[in-house]
Amino acid sequence: MANEMDRGQAWLWRRGTRPAAAGLTAHRLSGITPAVLPPAATRARQGQVAKPLLGPRLALGWCLAAMACVPADPPLPVPQATVARSDTRVLPGPALSPAEIEAEGARLREVLTREVPSATGPGPWQEQGWVARVQAAVARAGLVLDRPQLLVSVDRSPGVQALAILLARPDGPWDVLGGSYVSTGQANRRGYYITPTGVFLHTDAILDWRAEGTFNENHIRGLGLKGMRVWDFGWVQASKGWRADKELGEIRFLLHATDPDYLEQRLGRPASKGCVRIPAAMNRFLDRHGVLDADQERAAASDGRFRALLLPDREPTPLAGRALVVVDSSETF
């Protein structure tokens, strides 16, 4: 943990990236009211943040622990939000004809089969009902899809623990391109949070980062090998998995790889501190093809920080989206 946190903190601090502040800026630009701001932004508007510029020790080290999801302290007594950001409009991408959409979907499925061999085989992501649950979550969140695009969906149910990449069409069928097993938040272990459900938007208000690949004191590379992508969804509310009353706390919500030698083989069961752990091969596929990088590709055109983040040899899909949807098939609404 020490190596990952120390090096990662210094690197992020040198970049001047402060995700909480960036998220606040995005909300100010969107013109929303304090009642729907995330907790950190609400506190800032109420004048409860006395020091806008924190030192490196406090700034972003919390999100670089070995298991990557670290709570903020103290927790805030507000309900868990269904949508991570109030902007529920998916920004338009390149216009594609129906034939081009079908061709791109088929191409991505073929590439996924080649780069993540198990992704298109049998798995929970192929079961009937997966798409309907994700569609219901998107509708509850008020997310507006104005073009065909990719979504990353996760079922946090302890008996499922899987991810699926969906091709979502506003006025047509949704297709499952493939999936993989994951690990989400573990219950009944102190310091471990239950991964929240809802829709979480991956926007350019927060700059992602990459794993340093260093070992913690337990010889674990919590974010995977060096260079693995870490998708940062900002601060969210999550239930404390060790408390019977399900008290809420605040965690930095990330999508990331995990230790390839010890923890990747355990994917398929709850094990994280609240984030979503994915296999290295799936990490590379999402990264190389920009599955969640609709905003980041646009930002890279004028912002060198995003150009530095994105892979130089990437092959971004024109169907890129920006929504991570977490459901729980063991729950009923």
What's the layout of helices and strands?
Layout (H helix, E strand, L loop, with lengths): L1 H14 L3 H12 L8 H7 L10 H4 L11 E2 L25 H18 L14 H12 L7 E7 L6 E7 L6 E7 L11 E2 L3 E4 L7 E2 L18 E12 L7 E9 L19 E2 L2 H9 L5 H7 L3 H6 L13 E5 L6
Parallel strand pairs: 2-11, 9-10
Antiparallel strand pairs: 1-9, 2-3, 3-4, 5-8, 6-11, 7-8, 8-9
What does this structure look like?
The chain is of the alpha+beta class and 333 residues long. It has one domain (69-327): L,D-transpeptidase catalytic domain-like (Beta Barrel), CATH 2.40.440. The chain contains 9 helices and 11 strands. It has helices at residues 2-15, 19-30, 39-45, 56-59, 98-115, 130-141, 280-288, 294-300, 304-309; strands at 71-72, 149-155, 162-168, 175-181, 193-194, 198-201, 209-210, 229-240, 248-256, 276-277, 323-327. The strands form 2 sheets. Strands 1, 5, 7, 8, 9 and 10 form a 6-stranded mixed sheet that branches. Strands 4-3-2-11-6 form a 5-stranded mixed sheet, with helices on both faces. The chain is globular and about 50 Å long. The protein starts with a helix and ends in a 6-residue tail after the last strand. The model is unreliable at 1-67 and 73-92 (pLDDT under 50).
